[in-house]
Amino acid sequence: MAYSDATPAGRAVKGIIADLPGLIAVAIADTDSGMNLASHSNSDHFSPDMAAAYNTQVVQHSLNAINTLHMSNGTLEDMLITVTGQYHLIKLINDGAMFMYLAVNSLDTNLAIAREVMRQHSAGVN
Amino acid sequence: MFNPFRPKTVWQPSSEELAAEEQVSGYTTPDLPPVAPAPPLQAPAAVPPPPPAAVAAPAAVPPAPAPQRPMPAAAAPAAGAAPLSTTTAQALEQLVVKLPGLLFAGLTEIETGVAVRGRTPSDILPAAPIARFHAELVRLERLALKHAAKGTAPEELREILVTISDQLHLLRVVRDGQLLLSIVLDPRLSSLPTARVALQAAANTIG
Hints:
The complex is a heterodimer of chains A (126) and B (207). Chain A is an alpha+beta fold and 126 residues long. Chain A has helices at 8-19, 48-68, 111-122; strands spanning 23-30, 36-41, 76-83, 86-93, 98-105. With 207 residues, chain B is of the alpha+beta class. Chain B has two domains: 1-49, no CATH class; 84-206, 2-Layer Sandwich (Beta-Lactamase), CATH 3.30.450.30. Chain B has helices spanning 15-25, 52-56, 84-98, 127-148, 192-206, and strands at 102-109, 115-119, 157-164, 167-174, 179-185. In chain B, helix 3 (84-98) runs antiparallel to helix 5 (192-206). The termini of chain B are far apart. Chain A binds chain B through residues 44-48, 50-51, 53-55, 57-58, 61-62, 65-66, 69, 71-86, and chain B through 125-126, 129-130, 133, 136-137, 140-141, 143-145, 147-152, 155-167.
């Protein structure tokens, strides 16, 4: 239980735990340092801290590619990673200063629900 | 003596000739399917044809007959299946036809980031850097999944979708996790569900 109700990030994590069936883990991390501001895991076999730390590299690599390759004039919004039986979602918040990481069981939730719940709760983290 | 009326035969090197060839050039023969056709019009001294992945690789790689790293086994066509270069070309053409607003479609080797084949129908994006970016993304994500798993085997990566405000990047792992089929789309012209269905069909074509 690594979150506090006193912070917006902690309240977002708490809201997601309440709203999302099939939640495996959720974390809100700082994009520069890769450290978690708030996290929670329902599984003994999944560490949201490590996931956020290593996915920071994934996010930074994508941001670099957009800038250095002149690939797009747009901004990175979210990423969806499909693995066997799970969806992992990353959503950038505060113009990429932070990101939310969410892992859900694909049998219990569909992608639209997971994205919508994430969108609602990430709007409050500012 | 050259005889122009000689019946056309397919030349195939005997095992001794192949062994001698390896000693001379230091070239180790990759795992070729047993039915690999030898080129009929080449001089007998030619090395056996490399797998199609190497043929289709960009010309930036010098055509040296001695690759330093062994080619991954999955890059060579499975015995009995159509060659990878043909199925890839077919699959990418299908994608170009089905998806308006396609900016890039390509098949990439994940370990090296080298594009086996790439198409950029609208010529807006450069193919090789995009292929490298996609392969690196998959490698980083596999690393993340490996470190996030505690005490169990990491989950197997299937698909990545990157949403940028004016582009969609869809990446799909094919051929036992060795190759990556990826596309970049303009979301105003093609919807995500259509693109996923088309990508699934293309992945099935490649196998």
